[in-house]
């Protein structure tokens, strides 16, 4: 039994390390800690490999995007505050106009990603992979800009993704995304407290 567990751990070490770093990433994100970004960058780099092996190509591409947006978020959280501000970039509310734009961007991304997966890959879950990827792109941009609404998108995306990873048998990632779902709820509540302090 121990030999089987060790064999499984060794065979899934990249996914396990990615899952552990992913938990740290979401913890730092809730706390609005700058370590959100380097931790997220490392997590994403590992998950490029994991999702490539699982034929989750949109999710794999999403991880490449996460590497780039992690660099942007890291910069914005360090330098994005106004010179007069002495503390971090404040939590913000998404305007109605921006919500409409983000909805349109999500829809366009979904259609583009779905087209690519249906026509150029052997993905067996193109619709769900496209949906979670499109929404994740938008939510991560919102996180980088510190819009509180990104947490609501993550609650949905993380719950749906956990189900997708059950189907794929990516068990450490199922656990990670189940934890992400709970932590996204906690993150929303935590950021809401900070938003009230700003008002």
Question: What are the main properties of this structure?
Answer:
mainly alpha; globular
**Which bin fits the share of residues in helices?**
over 70%
Q: Supply the number of structural domains.
A: 1
Q: How large, in whole angstroms, is the Cα Rg? A: 17 Å
Low-confidence stretches: none
Termini Cα gap: 56 Å
Q: Structural class given helices, strands, pairing? A: mainly alpha
Q: What would the principal axes of the Cα set say about the shape? A: globular
Order of helices and strands: HHHHHHHH
Proportion in β-strands: under 5%
- Provide the residue-averaged pLDDT: 89
Largest sheet: none
What is the number of helices? 8
Q: Please give the number of β-strands.
A: 0
Topology:
Elements (H helix, E strand, L loop, with lengths): L1 H10 L1 H18 L5 H18 L3 H23 L16 H25 L5 H19 L5 H19 L2 H28 L1
Helix pairs in contact: 2-3, 2-8, 3-4, 4-6, 5-6, 6-7, 7-8
3D structure, described in words:
The chain is mainly alpha-helical. It has one domain (2-198). The protein has 8 helices and no strands.
Task: Offer a concise description of the structure.
By secondary structure, the protein is mainly alpha-helical. The chain has 8 helices and no strands.
């Amino acid at each position: 039994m121990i030999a089987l567990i060790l064999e499984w751990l060794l065979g899934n070490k990249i996914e396990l390390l990615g899952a552990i770093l992913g938990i740290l990433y979401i913890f730092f994100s809730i706390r609005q800690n700058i370590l959100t970004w380097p931790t997220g960058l490392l997590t994403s780099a590992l998950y490029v490999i994991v999702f490539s092996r699982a034929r989750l190509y949109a999710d794999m591409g999403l991880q490449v995007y996460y590497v780039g947006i992690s660099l942007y978020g890291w910069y914005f959280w360090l330098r994005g505050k106004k010179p007069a501000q002495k503390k971090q970039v404040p939590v913000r509310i998404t305007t109605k106009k921006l919500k409409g734009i983000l909805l349109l961007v999500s829809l366009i991304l979904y259609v583009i990603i779905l087209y690519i997966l249906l026509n150029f890959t052997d993905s067996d879950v193109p619709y769900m992979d496209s949906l979670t990827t499109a929404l994740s792109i938008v939510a991560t941009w919102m996180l980088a800009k510190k819009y509180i609404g990104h947490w609501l998108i993550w609650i949905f995306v993380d719950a749906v993704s956990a189900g997708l990873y059950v189907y794929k048998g990516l068990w450490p990632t199922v656990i990670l995304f189940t934890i992400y779902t709970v932590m996204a709820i906690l993150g929303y509540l935590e950021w809401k407290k900070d938003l009230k302090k700003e008002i």
